[in-house]
Each structure stands twice: as C-alpha cells, then as structure tokens.
Amino acid sequence: MASRLFSLAKPFLNPKFPNPRPFSTSFLITKTPKKHKPKRPKPDSPRTRSVTPDSNKIPHFESLLTRDAKYRFLIKTKEFLSKQPEQILRLDDAGKLYRELGFPRGRKVTKFISRYPLLFTSYRHSDNKIWLGFTDFLDQLLLEERSIMEAMEEDRVTRIRKLLMMSKNKRIPLSKIYHKRLIFGIPEDFRDKMGKYPDYFRLVVEDDGKQILELVNWDPSLAVSALEKEFLVNEDKVKKAFKFPVKYGKDLGLEENDVKKLNLLNTLPLVSPYSDGWKLDSWSLEAEKYRVGIIHEFLSLTLEKRALIHHIVEFKEEFSLTRQTYEMLKRQPWTFYLAGTEMNWAVFLKDGYDENGNLIEKDPLLVFNEKLYKFAQMQEEEEEEEEISGFREKLRGD
Q: Are 123 and 133 in contact, with CB atoms under 8 Å apart?
C-alpha cells in the first residue's frame, strides 16, 4: 500500500516537472465599488429631521434656505473682509477662519474663492505671501451698497426704535442688535451713528462693561403693529390668520355654530406687541396671544419676513418668550411656516409672500443682494461680459 502511494506521488517529485507558480487572484474585484453600494439611510436625529413633513412642505420657502446655504461663503466673506484693514486677508489665515468665512471645516478655502471669479481675487504680495481680497468689480458694487444703506438710514432707525418699544424694559444690549443686524438691514457702523439721534436712543454702559441701548421717547404713531394695520384693511383675513380654540367641557352641549362663534372670539391676538403683555400670566391664553403678536411683528421688521430660530431666541429675555416657541408656532400654520431641521429651523411670515413665494414688498437692499447673487453665478465668459461692462459704465456715470 505504501509503495503504491509513493508511486502516485512520483510525478510531483520528478525534477522534470517543477512545482507550478502560485495562482494570483489580484485581478479579481474583492470589494464592491462605492457607487454600487446601497446608500445607508441618514440617521434620524434633530440635525437631519425636518420640522415639516415632506407632504406639507412648501418648495419656495425651502428653496430660500437652500439659497442661503449656497451663498453663505459669499455673504460671510464679504462681511468679514469689509471690516479688515485695507479689506484684505492673508490666505493662510483665511484657511483657518472657516466659521468667520462660512465654509465647512476641513475644506480648502481656495475652492470657494474660485467659485466667484468676478468678486474675489487672490494675489501674491511683496512679502511673498498670497492674499485674498475684493476684485475691482466688487469694490464698485460695494459703493452702490453703501449708497443704499445711507439712503435707508431713517428706515433702519425706525426699525431699531420699534424693537426697543417691543422689549420688556425698552432696552436691548447693543451686541444683540449688532449680531442680528443683517436680517434687519442695519449697517455695520450703526453703533457710531446712534449719537446722531439723542431724542430716540440713549447708550448706557453697565458695571460689567456691557453696552445697552435704551429708548428715550415713546412714539404712539410707531406703536401700531403690521397685524393691526392689516386688520383695519381686511378684518376677515386677519381673523382667519390665527386660531386659539377655547377649551370647554362637553357637558355644555354647544352646537357646531355656537362653537364656531365662541372660537371666533379667540382668533386674533388682540394683545399688542407694544403693550405690557409681559406682565400677563405666562401660561394664559392672553399671554400666548401676546407672544404670537411679538413674533409676527418681529418678522415683519426683518427684510425678508423670515428668521432663523436663533435670531429670535437671541431676544428671548427682552421679548418674554418661552421654551415652547416651537410648539406655539406649530399651532399657527395659517400664518407661520417652519422650514429646515429641528436643530436649525427658520420661521417664515406667510403673508409677506405672494402665492409664488415672492416677497410682496422688496427692500432696496434685497434688490441689491439679488443682483449680487446673479453676478456670483457668472464666469468671465463672452456672452456675460457685455452685461458686466454695461453695469460698470453705469456705476461710472453715477
């Protein structure tokens, strides 16, 4: 038996037949290509979970948030550079300022600069360092923006006065107004201009160094909310804008028409945002009407009739808002639209827009921003050069 096994093994031991080479499998695809892998669903979390179900979403409001994200780098970098000496920034430093310039951490800032060749430029300075700055074309645009700001100064002063009149103690920290100035169209240098209006404002410095802006004189003509003005024009429309159902026991046996009449008495937030509504019991129906009125008026003072939640919460103490702001606004879908995710959502004032999602009244600064976005999309191409040249000539003529 052993001899038989040995004879069978001889061909493999014969030097005339060397051992075969190892069989290579390197050409085989052992991993599934990434593009063919099934996409994992995003984890359900406040960061990704929408505040409005897909079935109830209004596309034109959602698209405005998408636009904001798209131009975040443009707007934040324009604001940041405008405050720098000579309006330039070393590129090495720019790459570290991802929060200030509005680009994701870990990304290269040069990638975002290259998206706007008409607006931003980089160049090598005499110190052999590369610097970021505005193009001559954007410098011309900024002159136009400054001119608009100067022309709208009286309107901006009125907005600040109305904010102070709505506040609990008729005073707001100056830093809060400054941080949220863009949504109201307030200029960067407004703090330096407060001294021009001693009849309206008083600047107080507290013991800890905090600067507080106080209201000097109450103006009854300003103490009329946008909602109250609309009520005089279209009473029925305003009555249908809000609903504050009255809770009643079933034992009352009210008929359907009687229930409607009872609820009709509670459809309008009659507590003016310019009143002392903050003194009301915070859990009462009247107090909720007051807070709804505050947010409605706050949004009506913004340029785009909308604001991110942190814009509103910034004034939580001054406007006597509660932690239940989100739930309160959800109860008023006829007037407010909530967009975004639970972690970072925005509230829109529906009556500020038409049925196509366009603002009914456009501030001159918004018209300028739309033009800026248009130029941001342009590249140096022949078919666009004529329009750009025409705009430059117009600026020279002005």
A: yes
The full DSSP string for 17-36 is SPPPPPPP-TTS--S--GGG
Domain boundary among 134, 167, 201: 134
DSSP code of residue 185 = T
User: What are the phi and psi torsion angles at 145 (to 5°)?
Assistant: -60, -40
Sole residue written with tokens 């099934």: 38
Q: Residues 195, 115: one domain? A: no
The CB-based long-range contact list for 260-264 (8 Å cut-off, 24+ gap) reads: 264/239
Residue pair 217/201 in contact (Cβ under 8 Å)? The answer is no
**Residues 216-240: pLDDT tens digits?**
999 999 999 998 888 877 777 777 7
Confirm if 286 and 280 have CB atoms less than 8 A apart: yes
Tell whether 25 is covered by a domain: no
| CA–CA dist 80, 75 (Å, integer) | 9
State the Cα–Cα distance between residues 62 and 337, nearest whole angstrom.
10
Pairing outcome for strands 88-90 and 130-134: antiparallel
What range defines the domain where residue 153 resides?
139-366
- Contact indicator for 304, 359 with CB cutoff of 8 Å: yes
Helical packing angle, 72-82 and 364-377, nearest 10°: 110
pLDDT tens per residue across span 262-314: 555 555 556 899 999 999 988 888 899 899 999 999 999 999 999 999 999 99
For the chain, the domain total comes to 2
**H-assigned helices in the chain:** 2-13, 59-70, 72-82, 91-94, 98-101, 109-113, 136-151, 153-166, 174-179, 181-184, 190-193, 226-233, 235-239, 256-264, 285-301, 309-313, 325-330, 364-377, 382-397
pTM: 0.81
Instruction: Kindly report the number of other CB atoms within 10 A of residue 174's CB atom.
Output: 19
Nearest CA among 349, 354, 347, 293 for reference residue 319: 293
Signed CA dihedral, 49, 53, 55, 59: sign only? negative
